[in-house]
């Protein structure tokens, strides 16, 4: 294992090997302070909040679903519910996130999870040339084109971003 490989969470490092993305190891960035939130990651990287890709786990009728969303936006659970044809969609609890993905909240990458999960990616991510996502723990992130990220995550591109309220 190279020193750059050790920057990634072991499960994520294995996923990168399986996907043929070994070169991505050299682009993983580790920060001494946590980059658990999109705002913390954007501040550490010096990029726009919308250039951060959040990996959020929801429960749709009790089944986990991963939603990839730009860091400046919020997920509209009603739009997710409609997209999935579900009765009820809620934010997954921390234990469900860890059990489903193998990672703790704040470090969930967009792919390389313990279990195969349905993945939705909000179209807003495609507005950027590069987005940054968690690399398996709250201190590491990696860059990738949103199109490649969506492809590797096996995501369906949808519109599930909460729209600003008009008065």
From TrEMBL:
Gene3D superfamilies: YbaK/aminoacyl-tRNA synthetase-associated domain. It holds the Pfam family tRNA_edit. Residues 34-150 form the YbaK/aminoacyl-tRNA synthetase-associated domain. InterPro entries: YbaK/aa-tRNA-synt-asso_dom_sf (IPR036754), YbaK/aa-tRNA-synth-assoc-dom (IPR007214). GO terms for molecular function: aminoacyl-tRNA deacylase activity. SUPFAM superfamilies: YbaK/ProRS associated domain. This is Prolyl-tRNA editing enzyme YbaK/EbsC (Cys-tRNA(Pro) deacylase).
């Amino acid at each position: 294992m190279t020193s750059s490989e050790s920057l990634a969470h072991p499960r994520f490092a294995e996923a990168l090997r399986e996907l043929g993305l070994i070169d991505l190891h050299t682009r993983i960035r580790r920060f001494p302070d946590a980059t658990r939130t999109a705002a913390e990651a954007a501040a550490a990287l010096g990029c726009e909040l919308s250039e951060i890709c959040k990996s959020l786990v929801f429960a749709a009728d009790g089944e986990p679903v991963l939603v990839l969303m730009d860091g400046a936006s919020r997920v509209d659970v009603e739009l997710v519910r409609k997209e999935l044809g579900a009765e009820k969609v809620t934010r997954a609890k921390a234990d469900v996130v860890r059990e489903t993905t193998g990672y703790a909240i704040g470090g969930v990458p967009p792919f390389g999870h313990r279990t195969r999960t349905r993945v939705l990616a909000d179209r807003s991510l495609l507005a950027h040339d590069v987005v940054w996502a968690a690399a398996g723990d709250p201190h590491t992130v990696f860059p990738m084109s949103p199109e490649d990220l969506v492809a590797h995550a096996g995501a369906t591109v949808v519109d599930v971003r909460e729209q600003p309220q008009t008065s």
